[in-house]
Write a structure and sequence with these properties.
Helix content is about 25%, strand content about 20%. It has about 350 residues and is of the alpha+beta class. The strands form four sheets. Strands 11, 12, 13, 14, 15 and 16 form a six-stranded mixed beta sheet that branches. The longest helix is centred in the C-terminal third of the chain and has 16 residues. The N terminus is likely disordered. GO terms for molecular function: metallopeptidase activity.
């Protein structure tokens, strides 16, 4: 899927709800009279107690004292549409670069301003209407999980490697299938370890990994440097003294990786220990994941030094969630947190939230 739009595309399934200061019931809320009458067709307006009616901004509202019960009843009424159409935007500079249409007066009236970017509304543009898309329900996660996830992906709480002031960290992941090529001189022990790790990840639908024998068909190379093998597949790893990797990405989409194990100064280290360090780096390349102090020492995402690391259940959940489309992808930390906050508010009111992805 290609998220060509930088701004979150959100589809909300909810009622027109208006808050009230004094609630009669913890699940009570005001809804539009028109919606109320569609659900309760046989109830006359005169039968609704006057204290349950109020007018706000030109809308006549009715107090519903048990919203969950009302929602269940309303869901059975076919002519009611619960979908609030989302408004999609893209940065003006990107629009001008990819579309020749002149900016209209209507466009300028609907401009949105976010930080230093001017955003243009594209929901009513033909190229957007004809774009294929898929909507995925929001995937809720606990605050504890998200706190750890944000440290692994965005370095939010990581005192070991904080983000430079004024610089944003973005979510990065593989969108194209990963095609791994093993260099001819890579030890069989390390090959087996990588293959086993890939098999354990096979249940993650959006993360596709395979192995190829043709170097030119690969986008991920794993190789070994020792006293018999000196060929380096990446100049960016010349300073590597043990295990390291180099990732290339474009707009958050990883498209190429080199993973190197250098044994010139580590020839006496046990292969099992080498494999554990190699695997830790391999897992980190699946999303440019950072290490954190918020995970136990045996976690592959823990910044604790240990040769006994393994992919824990929580590590797996972090990778799986990273490739879940129940949240908008390729965003910065601020947008990621805003999306979760919006989703929680909608769900709390009985609505359903979905994220729309273009492809």
């Amino acid at each position: 899927m290609k998220n060509i739009i930088f701004i979150t595309l959100i589809t909300l399934y909810s009622f027109a709800i208006f808050g009230q200061k004094k609630e009669i019931h913890k699940d009570s809320t005001y809804i539009k009279l028109k919606l109320y009458q569609k659900v309760f067709k046989n109830e006359k307006l005169t039968n609704i107690a006057s204290e349950r009616i109020k007018i706000t901004g030109g809308d006549t509202l009715v107090l519903v004292t048990n919203f969950k019960k009302f929602r269940r009843k309303a869901s059975k009424v076919k002519e009611i549409s619960f979908k609030n159409h989302s408004r999609a935007y893209m940065p003006l500079w990107q629009y001008k670069k990819t579309h020749k249409e002149a900016i209209t007066k209507k466009d300028s009236i609907n401009f949105l301003f976010k930080e230093k970017d001017t955003l243009i509304l594209i929901s009513d543009k033909d190229f957007y209407k004809n774009q294929k898309r898929v909507s995925v329900p929001y995937e809720p996660k606990s605050d504890a999980f998200l706190k750890t996830y944000k440290d692994v992906v965005f370095k939010k709480h990581n005192s070991y490697g904080n983000i430079r002031k004024g610089k944003k960290e973005y979510m990065r992941l593989w969108e194209a299938p990963i095609k791994i090529y093993f260099a001819p001189k890579l030890d069989k022990h390390y090959k087996r370890a990588i293959k086993k790790a890939v098999k354990e990840l096979s249940s993650i639908d959006s993360l596709q990994i395979s192995f190829v024998k043709n170097l030119n068909k690969s986008n991920y190379i794993i190789y070994q440097i020792d006293d018999k093998n000196s060929y380096q597949y990446s100049d960016n790893l010349k300073k590597n003294k043990y295990v390291d990797y180099y990732i290339n990405w474009n707009k958050g989409r990883i498209y190429d990786t080199k993973l190197e194990i250098n044994l010139l100064e580590n020839s006496t280290i046990d292969k099992k220990e080498n494999a554990a360090i190699l695997l830790q780096n391999f897992y980190q390349t699946l999303g440019r994941f950072f290490t954190t102090s918020k995970l136990p020492c045996n976690s592959v995402f823990s910044n604790c030094n240990s040769s006994k690391k393994e992919l824990t259940k929580l590590d797996f959940e972090i990778i799986k969630y990273h490739y879940s489309y129940g949240i908008c992808k390729f965003t910065d930390l601020e947008t990621f947190e805003e999306n979760h906050q919006k989703a929680k508010e909608i769900i709390k009111k009985g609505g359903i939230m979905e994220f729309t992805h273009l492809y």
